[in-house]
Amino acid sequence: MRPANILTAITDIMAGIAIAGFLAHGLTDVQAVLQVTCLAIATIGLYGGGVVFNDIFDASLDRIERPERPIPSGIISKTEAVVLGVYLLLLGVLAAFTVGELSGFIAIGIAVAALVYNKWGKHHKVLGPFNMGLCRGLNLLLGISIVPASLPHYGWLAVVPVLYIASITMISRDEVHGGKKRTLVMAAIGYAIVCALILWQGFMKGEALKVGFYLVILLYLILTPLFKAMKEPTGPNIGKAVKGGIIGLIVMNAAWVAAFAIFPYPLAVLAFLPLSMLLSKAFAVT
User: Fold this and answer.
1) CA dihedral over 138, 144, 148, 149, signed as positive or negative
2) What gap in Å lies between CA 43 and CA 91, rounded to an integer?
3) Alpha carbons 166 and 272: distance in angstroms, whole number
4) What residue ranges define each of the domains in the chain, with the CATH number in brackets?
5) pLDDT tens across 11-36, in order?
6) Which of 12, 37, 121, 178 has the most CB atoms less than 10 A away?
7) d(CA 164, CA 161)
C-alpha cells in the first residue's frame, strides 16, 4: 500500500480544500471536520488500492526484477491482494460520495485512471507518465470538490501535479537498470515549471514570501538526488531521485496551502514530511 506515499496523497486533499477556500477561516464546525476526514479516507483507499493493483499487474515481472515484493516473495497470494485492492478502491469511492456526488464521481475517475495506468498506461512511453499524473491531478480536484463552486475557478491548477508526477514517472522507468541524463534534465525542467506556477499563484494571493519558503525546501529535496543522478544515472541513484520527488509532494502541497489558507495549516501539512520520511525507511516508496 506504500504507507509513506499515502501520506502524500492526504496532503493532496489538504492542498485541494485550501485552494477551494475551505480553510480560509479554519475548520469551524464538526461537519467541516467530518468532510475533510471523509476525503482523507477516500484518498487513502484510492491510493492504497491503486498501488496494490500495481503490484498485482506487475507480479510476473517482479518475480524477476523485484522478488522481495509481497506477492513474488509469497507473503500474500495474488488473490488476497485482489481482495484488498478491490476493498480499498470501494472504500475510497464510497467515502468520497459521503461528501457529495461530485466528489464521488471524481473518486471513480481516480480509480479508473489508476487501473488503466497499472494495466496499460505504464507500458506507453509518452502517455504513461501523463496517465499517472492524471491520478494526482484528479486527487487535487477531489480536495477542491469539497466546495463544488470553486472547481470552475481553480480546477485548472490540477495541471501542476499532473506535470510534477509525469516528471517523476518519466525517470522512474530507469530506476532498475539505469537511464540517460536527458530524461533527468527533462524532469528538472518539469519541476521548474511546477515551482514557477505555484510561486505565481502565491504572488497573486499576496503570499509569495511564504510560498517561496516552502518551495526552497521542495527544491532541496528534489534537486539534491536529481543532480546526483545526472552525474551518475545508475539505477540506485535514479531510485533516490524518484523517492525524493514523491516525498517532495508533501512540501509542494504545503506551498499550495501557504498560498490559500491561514496559519498554521501550511505547517500542519509540512508536519507530514518527517513521518513520511520515517515510513519510507520501513516501506517501499517506488
Assistant:
1) negative
2) 9
3) 23
4) 3-273 (1.10.357.140)
5) 999 999 999 999 876 677 899 999 99
6) 12
7) 5
